[in-house]
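Question (not urgent): is this output format expected?
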Amino acid sequence: MRPLIAPSVLASDFANLQSEVEMLNNSQADWLHIDIMDGRFVPNISFGFPVLEAIKRYAQKPLDVHLMIVEPELYIERFREAGADTISVHVEACTHLHRTLQQIKATGAKAGIAVNPHTSVHLLEDVIADADLVCLMSVNPGFGGQKFIENTYRKIEALKNLIIQRNSQALIEIDGGVNQHNTPLLLEKGADVLVAGSFVFSAEDPAQTIADLKSSK
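Got this back:
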């Protein structure tokens, strides 16, 4: 199977957001990845509900919303109402992760777990069966354009084994530093979804770059 490609809108041209979303609609992208940052869980602030709602107005593909915020459980329903199709919360930000995953599913959205580079995937043993998606951060969250962390390959293998052992249906998503050079090995190790921000939107032909990622083996 070819990978799912989820371009990160955080790297797009915000002054031309509608045209950027329409470009993604017409490309081979599968999802639109939306990074929500609160300036507390990560040292940066991105955007909130009004921008997400604006993206949803024009998007013809599912919105993959990645919450890099503290106390995400306070906002799950609101993000779903604003257009999120998948909602991922950080294991490091959730005191009661199982409850939060159930809360996401109760809204009708798919439930994802995001994992920082320093966090072991073995912490997910007791909740992996409840997740639809695990987003492995291959850079430290908060900023785009960072260098890919090589240890990610080992984590994908460990996570893939855990998914099989626990009979989970969770997809493995890789977020950070994805490019044409590391994509083949990411897929070989077991990645299902590739998030690409700067690599796509800084390309001369973003749609062709998405197509190239999509055809990677």
